[in-house]
Amino acid sequence: MELSRRERRDLRVQEAYARWLDVLSRIAFALSIAALAVYLTGAIAPYVPVARVAALWGQPVGRYLAESGAPVGWGWVSLVAYGDYLNLVGIAWIASVSIACYLRILPALLAGGDRLYAVIAAAQIAVLLLAASGLLNSIAGG
Amino acid sequence: MHAADTAAIAWWIWPLALFVVTFLLGIVAVVAGIGGGVLFVPVVAGFFPFHLDFVRGAGLLLALSGTLAAGPQLLRNGMANLRLAMPLALAGSAASLAGALVGLSAPERVLQTALGATVIAVALLIWFSRAADDLGIRESDALGALLRLRGRFEDPAAGVRYDWRTRQTPAGFAAFGLIGFVGGVFGLGAGFANVPALNLLMGAPFKLAVGTSGLIISIVNTSAAWVYINSGAVLPLLVVPSMLGVMLGSRIGAGLLRVTPAPTVRRLVIAVMLLAGSRALLRGLGLWN
Asked: Which of A19, A135, B251, B264 lies 20 to 30 Å (CA to CA) from residue B12?
């Protein structure tokens, strides 16, 4: 069946999204597995000892943070040299994959003249970046 | 489970048990066609020593990682439609962000009670949900036409092709907002609700609804996951074994799909959800601690 120009353009955008999703999620899972192996084997010392995590994982997050000295927001970035916070690299990567995929298709939507979907993509990127920024957590006192 | 009981058990037993349980959840969730995220939170919150804050953070990342892994194939073989997913995911992710903030500030008892009631309601929704393919929609509504939410969907297994278009698109937006909010509050994957909303409410063919639902979860859960990460409610010791367990289980489940009696597994899942939901409800009400 012959596809219209618009349909072919939509398919190209979808294929570009799929390609980035594929590559970035594979990297995310590889990072996660490698970081967990480092953590559990104790190859790199953790910031919060595993036994301490286990003693506190039944507590609400506020109490866990207060008693373990664990950071909130992006404070973990300065602790990636520790085995436990190295894992946050893979986790943050997983939570960034969709943002990167939207950034990839935004120029394609604009170039194809699909302004409405370009606005939707830009709004989606804004929502996800707002969530990632931690700004709302700070306002909500989280 | 009481702290004194759990303290007597070596810490490493719990992540290992989590891996085994999520592996099994991954199998049954695929066979039952509901996604693992919705089972994870009630089961792990009910029967493991972890606080609900950490379980919800892990639940979101679990559902997120599963849908990210499946996304490329679904998009490439036409089982998911990006154009259909994008506007609904925007509504869902904004609401999910709000839901996560509400969930992290709500009292635990209230959350447990609401989680129990929600999981029981979801079990009933799964029980009563039916699927439909060609809903005979020949005209888009105004919003659906503006967004060009229509297309052709070929189902190679059934050997048929549907020309689909959406109906009740504003109601679909409202539904995805509500689903996103609930998902953010409780850390649930939302395939159980996305699929009926896309299929029965908006008129997308069933298999396209299943695939597009996965894509939507991968976007919606991203916003709530960041709220949990920024709050410190993500423990790698819970998240990574769970992600690996459910991903491996899902692969096995996909292989078993042809030979397993799906209605039996579906009934088993509903029974597990009713049990876990009742546990959360009674815990929230202070009747089963």
From this structure: B251
